[in-house]
Structure formats: C-alpha cells, structure tokens
Amino acid sequence: MSNDLHAETVIDASPEQVWAVVSDLKRMSKWSPQTKKMIIRGGPVREGTTTININQAGWRVWPTTAKVTTFEPGRKLAFKVRENHAVWSYELQPLEGGTRTRVIERREAPGGTTKLSHTLIDRFFGGDDNFDATLTRDMNTTLAKIKRTVEQG
C-alpha cells in the first residue's frame, strides 16, 4: 500500500480565480506531468461526473477512469480512480482576506490500492517508494504550473 501524499503552494489570487483553473479538468494535461488527456463525460464537471484518463510516464501509457466525489466551488474538488481506489483532491484555503489562496493537492488511498495496481507499480515503476517519490515530484510540478497559469491570468 502506498502512503498518502500531498503537496501545496500559495497562489496570489482569490479562491474563485484558482477554482476556475483547478476545476477545469479537461485542461489537467497542461499541468500534470502524467496526465496526457482527461475526457469529461456527461456535461460540465460536478459531483458524479466521470472521466476517462490517459496517463503516461516515459514509455508507459495506461488508461484509468474516475468519478468526481466532491465538488464544492471555491473550496474542494476530489475524484476517485476506479482502477486503484486512489482519491485525488484539490483543497483551496483563502488567505489574507481572500487575496491569496493555499492549494493542497492530495493523493489518498484510505483502504489501500488494489492488488493489480500494487503489482504494476512494483513491476513497472520500481515499487511503492519510487512511485510515491515520482508522484510527489509531479504533484509539485502540477501546482507550480497551476500557480503560473492563475497568476499570469
């Protein structure tokens, strides 16, 4: 079982400005190093929306599907990946009267990941510790790109 992971940054913008970017899941490939495409199914993103995702790390490419489990505009967005049971979330916390926003990205696996996921991580990604380090690095990259996008308008 992989550990729960998180990364955070502070963005010089209101939670509403940050939300406009973070909640636009079809643009996730612009920020996340492993997300090549997120296809949104069933209209605008909201709780219950499903996605088809194409992920890539080096030569490894794999599809996943996810369901939005939390959608609180200006506050929190979370989705659960069906194949490994991991929950990815973005939490927005207003700072300094709402002129800045702390963004926390998390990858949680409260009940552990699936046996298949664990086997594939072991075989193709060098085990949990290596994969978790890669995910943490990529989460920090994702937040840096989101920060740059929001602050540049």
From TrEMBL:
Gene3D superfamilies reported for this sequence: 3.30.530.20
Question: Please, which domain of life does this record's source organism belong to?
Answer: Bacteria
Q: Which Pfam families match?
A: Polyketide_cyc2 (PF10604)
Which InterPro entries does its entry note? Polyketide_cyclase/dehydratase, START-like_dom_sf
What's this protein's name?
Uncharacterized protein YndB with AHSA1/START domain
